[in-house]
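During the reporting period the student researcher (J.K.) took over the structure-prediction task from the postdoctoral fellow and processed the backlog of single-chain submissions. One of the processed entries is reproduced below for the supervisory committee.
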Amino acid sequence: MIIAFWNICHKNLVDEIEELCKCNNIDIVCIAENPEGEYLVPGYNLVKSIGKLKIFSRYSLEIVNLLIESERYTILSVENPFIKKIIIAFCHLIPKVNYSMESKLIESQILSKTINDISEIKENRNVLISGDFNLNPFDSPMISAGGFHSTNDPEIAKKGSRVVQGKQYMYYYNPMWTFYGNTKRPFGTFFYYSSDYCVLNWEILDNYLLSSDLVQYYKRVELIEYIDGKNLLHNDGRINRDDYSDHLPVLLELTV
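J.K. obtained the following structure tokens:
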């Protein structure tokens, strides 16, 4: 299964979305910050088109079931007899510029609890969370036990959970940490330049979190730099936000 997420910054990139799906053999794609108006991706079913997200799938709508829809996140289940049953949550969470880290921690706690509750009800621990978290992998809402509780170590994540002050918290693995080891641009999914005294130019705001049961099916994660020959980066390696988006598409492949 190949999944893609792309925040397109309200740009009209319908052709690029179609090419992204076709060139990378995408099964499910989630698009955030869509332009005005409706659009379709040929060969794909429209799963969801309200709020901040549009979700397309080439799977039949009979096996892709919407569980929860809201303005900033959508939770669905994929139930195909030929693949592992998976719960997938796509999100576009509140931005850093308008909200405090404390607010983002509360939002992460609410969403994490919602996802874990559904996982328990469905008796399914194959859970994937994807989207523009507006958080880096090291930010407290991403790593705190009460938040998404994600780690950069897949072996730790496979332990399933840990106990903090007598309460059990489920682990998630975040493979996006691997891009901090890049030796050339891009170093993240989003680039920001500022004259501020303290600025993190490259940020990894778009993440994939895999539950402990799903880690064994992880194959790869990829930052998409080219779509059908179109370079999403400038010649100097920075993201080409003028012609495309200020975010890069991110692809995840699972062996299911």
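The committee noted the following: The CA atoms of residues 44 and 58 lie 4 Å apart.
J.K. will present the remaining backlog at the next meeting.
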